[in-house]
Amino acid sequence: MIHKKIKNGKRPHIPLTFIVTVIAFFVLVITMFVVTLVSYLMIHLGVFHYVPSGRASFIFIMVEFSLSSIVVGTCVSLVVGRISLRPISRMITALDCLAAGDYKTRIYFGESTVGKELAKSFNMLAQELDNTEMLRSDFVNNFSHEFKTPIVSIYGFSRLLLKGKVDENTAREYLSIIEQESGRLSKMATNVLNLTKIENQTILTDQAEYNVSEQIRRSILLLEKKWSAKNIQLSCEFNEHKITANEELLKQVWINILDNAIKFSPENGKITVAIYDRSEAISVVIKNNGPKISEHDMLRIFNKFYQGDASHGGEGTGVGLSIVKKIVDLHGGKVWVESTDKETAFWVSLPVSA
């Protein structure tokens, strides 16, 4: 049998069955030693007389030895068991706390290798559950706010139109607002559905070679109405680049990052898109001169449903960048953000052949 090398200098885990066997062996040895010692002392002190040829004496000693073994073995087992099973008891208590919804529970089992590994695994589980609960709470709050705003607008302007006391121009204005808010609701619902679909996808399919530079140009044109409305100067600094990937999925990446850049760019701002050839990969960077992203937000910006403090002033549900992260991961790439007082840059690195 070929043994696998131990990575990072870690010692192999000791099987639990071996540990239990060793404990049982020591309990047995201690029991035998104590019973033998007691029997010897009783004979030596004349409590009872041992006659080697006496059958009754032999039976008596065996019975005494057996009863003593049971009593001593039980006591030793209780002591050893209580000490050895204490971590398991603490683990059960901690798991009960998690089941009750207390995700702040943490445990510590001392400096032993097994204890540290067990505590580390449990604490990581508790932290993930705590993060999930926070995201769930944020999701409910964000969606309640983001869905309520357009629904209230649609309801309010619809009631005004039904009363029939508005002129034609005002009616058109109200209908335009209703159309915009309906589109906003549709976009939010679509993003959530897309995220759910992508999260369930583990294998990248429908890959083909295509011109990613042309795809980015088309994505920019699709959002022309948005960046033109803010009089944003949009600059493309790249040549033609081809990659093998899922074209439809990567289209969502560019649109979401560009839409985010437009959202946070000021009036008369500037957005720059560049592509760099990195041997076996390409790097796409989309920069805008919007407000600086805090360190706290940068650590969580790709989390599902996360919205930074600056994002609550505009529309959105914190889903777009989560979609970006998942799609890039599926392609074996990386996505990250860099932000200074002057500009914010979203980087996407993708292998030329996914």
TrEMBL record:
Alphabetized CDD domains for the sequence: HAMP (cd06225), HATPase (cd00075), HisKA (cd00082)
Keyword vocabulary terms for this entry: Kinase, Membrane, Phosphoprotein, Transferase, Transmembrane, Transmembrane helix, Two-component regulatory system
EC number: 2.7.13.3
Pfam families: HATPase_c (PF02518), HisKA (PF00512)
Entry's Gene Ontology cellular component terms: membrane
Subcellular location: Membrane
The protein's name: histidine kinase
Organism: Catenibacillus scindens
